[in-house]
Design brief:
8-stranded mixed sheet; 3-stranded mixed sheet; 16 helices; 17 strands; 18% strand; RNA-binding
RNA sequence: GGAGAGGUGGCAGAGCCCGGUUGAAUGCACCUGACUCGAAAUCAGACAUAGUCGCAAGGCUAUCGGGGGUUCGAAUCCCUCCCUCUCCGCCA
């Protein structure tokens, strides 16, 4: 299963290269040799199919003669040598196919037309800004200082029981996390029309392939080791032996094939993997509150303090399945739904249109919402809302039947954080801090905090 | 963990014991046409997906949970893995 449509790539090679080139010259270069490989593959397929056709004809003749009671030995002998020849051609075709798949699976989605040019975060374009950063008459502190002073956040205990990049929340801090999750879910299900889902937090390999995390980004994920070591070795042997990506994708679980989800996008998008939806059902909007687990390999020394970059954090995710016609309008709506949370909590933010070079692997277009953090004096990503067009749908085989049409088409998938709860937590702590180190609770959140208006240090 | 049953097209469901025009009966849904002012009902027809060859018409190849094997030929036989269901055990 290809990430980009093979026929489309072949027919529009120059155009595809040009659009991929917007992500960087090295990306477009991945398609070098594509034509040669494709030619090799097709000629091997044609040869193999001709031989198979011959074999099938002979078999049909054998069947006819046997039914009539005639002798078929002469015909049966005709296939001598065919079998080996077929096997050789099929192997050639499979080898070429595998090489192409290996290349294509590494290639990211094509950027949408409305994506700005650029190579790094520097080139992202600010679309709009909401709210005014509050003027402090004292020096605002970062959340890790405030949290530890108030006794609602404990990194030492987390390091002891788990390791680096984990946190323990206490008392009102724990409740604040729970309040935020409930508040967000209520708004999305009540006002924005999303259905609430509680999905598994562990998924199989096929799901991760479907949303684009695998095969390229295995190093970012936590994989559950099978206590049965022999089973694991057996699985890896199979992977080597038959492991073209496509058959592995279909071969749902080789052993206990479980990975911790890096985002609810994975289980939610895969809800409809291999399904054919009715156009009447679309758009489908779902939301879920889940933990997210990220290895953060390669992030050593980055954001080491505080809650910004954790191995486990919680997030409310928004996912939509839409028709191609709806997708860009729905992308704007989904982004607005995430923004509505920030607005209700009165947290200043800005919306960034990511440039081609900063776009994620699977995305055609992404808006990042960046919240103002006075304790660190910067805007920080708190939500990422993307349109994947048919990229994930093709990999996960999610189709729909347009009304009045017989042929199926791939849906477009969208998702966004609505919001990352951990980062919302710290945004509240930093933006609502008072001179005495207490945190006032945003009005919208107070009902979810049992009426609590302020988090103060415990007296005891 | 133990024992059994099963996985077939959008869905339901035959075929598998006894391998041979079976890409797969039948029903439902969907689509087209007729009838109708329109709709329902009825009747008639069409109706899998992907790859590949071809300007096209149209061929050809593959696919009956995944992989492998036996055979001239596999949905049907053999091996293996996965999944689902039922019963027993254990457990939040």
């Amino acid at each position: 299963m290809l990430m980009l449509d093979l026929g489309y790539v072949r027919a529009n090679l120059a155009r595809v290269k040009e659009r991929l080139g917007r992500r960087g010259a090295d990306v477009a270069a991945m398609l070098d040799g594509f034509e040669v490989l494709d030619l090799k593959r097709r000629s091997a397929i044609t040869r193999a199919e001709m031989l198979k056709a011959e074999r099938n004809q002979i078999s049909a003749e054998v069947a006819k003669r046997k039914q009539k009671g005639e002798d078929a030995a002469a015909w049966m002998a005709r296939t001598r040598g065919l079998k080996e020849e077929i096997e050789r051609c099929t192997a050639d075709a499979a080898a070429a196919e595998q090489q192409m798949q290996a290349v294509l699976q590494q290639i990211p989605n094509l950027p949408a037309e409305s994506v700005p040019a650029g190579t790094s975060a520097e080139d992202n374009v600010e679309v709009r800004r909401w709210g005014t950063p509050r003027a402090f008459d004292f020096a605002p502190k970062p959340h890790w200082e405030l949290g530890e002073q108030l006794g609602i956040l404990n990194f030492e205990q987390a390091a002891k029981i788990s390791g680096a990049r984990f946190a323990v929340y206490w008392d009102a801090g724990a409740r604040l996390e729970r309040a935020l999750a409930n508040f967000m879910l209520d708004l999305h299900t009540g006002t924005h029309g999303y259905r609430e889902v509680l999905p598994p937090y562990m998924v199989n390999e096929a799901s991760l392939f479907g949303t684009g995390q695998l095969p390229k980004f295995a190093q970012d994920l936590f994989r559950c080791a099978d206590p049965d070591f022999e089973a694991q070795e057996e699985s890896e042997r199979r992977e080597r032996e038959y492991g073209d990506e496509d058959s592995r994708r279909k071969d749902r679980a080789l052993f206990n094939d479980h990975w911790m989800i890096p985002t609810a996008e994975v289980p939610l998008t895969n809800l409809y993997r291999d399904d054919i939806l009715d156009e009447k059902q679309l758009p489908i909007s779902v939301t879920a509150y889940t933990p997210c687990f990220r290895a953060e390999a390669g992030a050593y020394g980055k954001d080491v303090r505080g809650l910004v970059r954790q191995h486990q954090f919680q997030k409310v995710e928004l996912v939509k399945f839409v028709t191609p016609e709806q997708s860009y309008a729905e992308h704007e709506r989904l982004t607005a739904h995430a923004e509505a949370i920030l607005q209700a909590l009165e947290l200043p933010y800005r919306v960034m249109n990511l440039c081609a070079g900063d776009l994620g692997f699977s995305a055609a277009k992404t808006y990042d919402l960046e919240v103002w953090l006075p304790g660190q004096n910067l805007y920080r990503e708190i939500s990422s809302c993307s349109n994947f067009e048919a990229f994930q749908a093709r990999r996960a085989n999610i189709r729909y039947r347009p009304q009045g049409q017989k042929k199926t088409e791939f849906v477009h998938t969208l998702n966004g954080s609505g919001l990352a709860v951990g980062r919302t937590w710290l945004a509240i702590v930093e933006n609502y801090q008072q001179a005495d180190g207490s945190i006032s609770i945003p009005t919208a959140l107070q009902p979810y905090m049992g009426g609590l208006k302020s988090i103060e240090a415990r007296s005891s």
